[in-house]
Design brief:
The chain is an alpha/beta fold. It folds into 4 domains: 204 residues, Rossmann fold (3-Layer(aba) Sandwich), CATH 3.40.50; 89 residues, Translation factors (Elongation Factor Tu (Ef-tu), domain 3, Beta Barrel), CATH 2.40.30.10; 107 residues, Elongation Factor Tu (Ef-tu), domain 3 (Beta Barrel), CATH 2.40.30; 161 residues, P-loop containing nucleotide triphosphate hydrolases (Rossmann fold, 3-Layer(aba) Sandwich). It has a 6-stranded mixed beta sheet, sandwiched between helices. The chain has a 6-stranded antiparallel β-barrel with strand order 7-8-13-11-10-14. Strand 4, helix 5 and strand 5 form a beta-alpha-beta unit. It starts with a strand and ends in a 7-residue tail after the last helix.
Length: 608
Amino acid sequence: MRQTMQIVIVGHVDHGKSTLVGRLLADTGVLGEGKLDKVMATCQRQGKQFEYAFLLDALEAEQDQGITIDAARVFFRTDKRDYIIIDAPGHIEFLKNMVTGAARAEAAVLIIDAKEGVRENSRRHGYLLSMLGIRQVAVVVNKMDLVGYDRGVFDRIVAEYRTFLEGVGIRPHCFIPISAREGDLVAGPSAAMPWYDGPDVLAAVDAFGKAPSGADLPLRMPVQDVYKWNARGDDRRIVAGRVEAGRLAVGDRVLFSPSNKTSTIASLEVFAAEPPREVEAGRSAGVTLTEQIFVGRGEIMSHLREGPEVGTRLRANVFWLGKLPLEPGRAYKLKLGTSQTEVRVEEVVRVLDASELESSVTKKRVDRHDVAELVLRTRAPIAFDPSERVEATGRFVIVDGYDIAGGGIVRALVPDEQQQLRLESRIRDIEWVRGDITAERRARALGHPASMVMLTGEAGVGKHAVARALERRLVDEGVHAYLLDGKNVVLGVDADIELDDREGLVRRFGEVAHLFLDAGLVVVSTTNVIGLADHHTLQTLVAPFEVLVVHVGPAGTEGEEADVRLDPSLVSGLGAGPGSGLGSGAEPVEAVERIMEVLAQRSRLRSH
């Protein structure tokens, strides 16, 4: 079976990218029937001289203006393999299209005009290739006929541009002097440049190494959706998505990240076809699981011990095309795979300034058309891979308001405060010695899945009153609920550690809560040992069980980050209006009702 490779052609506007690709197509005889005649007729009708670039610039707007707007894709073939060649736009206003075109390329041909030399976009495009992780690059110095095929001109461009590329982490495979219009060193030798003894463009392209097959990478399937019909006795829960990397087969043990939920593949489902025994990267499929765990859009499915990274901090390379600058302190939306989460810039490491074309470590914002190395922090843990390991789960876009304003690649995980606990929790969940009663069977027997409600707030605001009333309400409605007061844990399993060992107290409290949750209970928690600042740690410790954080405190306090915020008046009855059912010392009816509504909305109390 012949290999297929994707190669992107990039460079400054008018440096001859489209001409080079058009010349390759014409000289190797792979044009579709009538294509050349059609373009020649169009040029004649418009009163223009025929250009090989017009073989690609099919849009009227492009032919009128003489620039490439979108990234054109053409199929190309040599004796060695098949190619998809992407001709990306060079004009700065179409930089987003250029990045889109280069996103899936395995190698690049970067073109420079011999007469104009290295331009602003020549450097910017080189940096973008580096940022996108493309390391196989051949540099073509075009229009050598306009400088009399002067070797000195070629050597000066090579010296200047090689230094720049190596500064951004790219070691080009070769530099090739060509004339795309005249056909010199495009698909064969050139009598005009006997001083050059390297490969022509075709030979350089064939010398690129093919990236490993996506099927040979670790399994990654971002969850697109979960379907359940309940029609005609069909109670299957089908987890659907596209296998972006690796292979998936019936019987595989799988892990869902970031939730840490595990199960086994019971069957593979495809639309209107016989269910396969295995699917590979590039195919969409649905899976059913032997244990009906509850996962949702945004999770990434992997094999059990080959999971992606999970965290809230990531080092990334970002290109920015937004109308407003990308700045620390502002909230944006990060989309990676099928997940969406709030993200902020924690640190601007360095910026390639669009006007100065120099790498700055002092600039603290990213302007339009800049590219930068950043540390990003997400509001909740997400699953991802460094792009060098798995491309599909290592690339993302950033949304500002309603517009896609930037994108980039993940370089590495940056440990956060919960990273060690997160790792320990994953190992614990994978190695957990389980009985014969699955979580699904236990939920059916009890009438509800396990969950946790954690009440936080300052001392004396009424957390305990709400917790006790909530436990009674849950039990009265047939829910197996248990009030886990932090004091009981401190007096018991924490009796051998000091009260100022906050990390130890939080860790042990979380492990006790995890045991109750694994038993299928709804745990109601209240403690002054663990405040709102520690609820992320607790969520890590009790994963894959979710935590509903309820903060009791006035508006404007830290409770704004909680899932539910209760004003103390709803708890104590102070300030309650007539008919509220509250009074001084009364049951916190309204507070409990608020929590019950949220629990019902999240289906935590419904039997599945």
